[in-house]
Amino acid sequence: MFTGAVVEILLWINYLHITPNTHEILQMFERRLFSVFFPDILMAMATTRNVMRAVRVFEFGGPEVLKLQSDVLIPVPKENQVLIKVHACGVNPVETYIRSGNYARKPALPYTPGSDVSGVIESVGEHVTTFKKGDKVFSIDTISGGYADYALAAANRVFPLSDKLDFKQGAAIGIPYFTAYRALFQKGHAKAGESVLVHGASGGVGIAACQIARACGLKVLGTAGTEEGMNIVLRNGAHQVFNHREANYIDKIKEYTKMQGVDIIIEMLSNINLATDLHLLSYAGRVMVVGCRGTIEINPRDTMSKESSIIGVGLFLATEEERHECATALLDGIEAGWLKPIVGSEYPLEKVVKAHGDIIHSSGARGKMVSCNLQ
């Protein structure tokens, strides 16, 4: 590796004699020299040059298209924007769908993934009065991307992070809890006393749904695929949990509900479970489609027999008023003590490729996956 790098550097030195763009070539020469022989010095230099580390995607594809770069310019907040020094960022399944190019919304290339970050306000743009430098915050969206040392966000997508939670927990709030609340109440119209089945309850959205539903007076059932996952679900609001890897778990759910079914299903893997979900609903029951990784065939008659509904949930379609409603309820939950994000696997920024592989292919979720900036 070093031999090839030295030859490349010598060629650049020779190139200096024949190119008029000497300044640019010197910068390339310097970056290459330090990245090979003095990477620690390069990182220290980056902090004084208004550049940062960030994961960049230049083409859609598998996890390998995630490229960590050390010389990305730190963005400057404009009007109604804030710059966050990122301490942790949530890793969500939807980010893998976007990265693969198989999602309805495709960002312009290149881009940096990541929406729900937690950290400290570094600077604010004009007209921002709700935050100041040094405030602890979390976000539900970013402008520049969260897989980075710094993230730019609209001020109205950022919220104060309570001292009751650490930065890792802060990074587990955004997409999971806002999605769970939206699925339950804004789209599912859940009411106290109703029953809800959280199908795949041991991950970030699942745990959020269990905690919120239990706090709001619903009867909460959950499923998980491991004993550890089942225990986590029970500790976070579920009245009863079932192992969805058992062949007869559907029969157990029906038996538990005395064949009456459940009012709402929060579905994380609809391409596998949707047809079965329709048989688990009560009259006028609702399946809330939160996650999907492919297609499935269903019989529409199964919706007619109970006048049931299948409703898609897209957090990015929420209005400003709906986001405010979510935020108010969740911030109240943090203060009341029932909203306590469970952090599962943790990855440094350098291991984000592995994180994207694991979140799709892991044997069972055990809380919210986060990327932590270890600097």
From TrEMBL:
Q: Does the keyword RNA-binding apply?
A: yes
Q: Which SMART domains match?
A: PKS_ER
**Principal location:** cytoplasm
Q: Which GO terms describe its cellular component?
A: cytosol
Localization per Swiss-Prot or TrEMBL: Cytoplasm
UniProt keywords, alphabetically: Acetylation, Cytoplasm, NADP, RNA-binding
**Residues in coiled coil:** none
Residue ranges constituting the Enoyl reductase (ER) domain according to the UniProt record: 61-371
| Molecular functions (GO terms) | mRNA 3'-UTR binding; NADPH binding; quinone reductase (NADPH) activity; zinc ion binding
The record's annotation in InterPro entries points to: ADH-like_C, ADH-like_N, ER, GroES-like_sf, NAD(P)-bd_dom_sf, Quin_OxRdtase/zeta-crystal_CS, Zinc-ADH_QOR/CCCR
Does Acetylation count among this protein's keywords? yes
Q: Which family does it belong to?
A: Belongs to the zinc-containing alcohol dehydrogenase family. Quinone oxidoreductase subfamily.
**Assembly and partners?**
Homotetramer.
Q: What is this protein called?
A: Crystallin zeta
UniProt source species: Cairina moschata
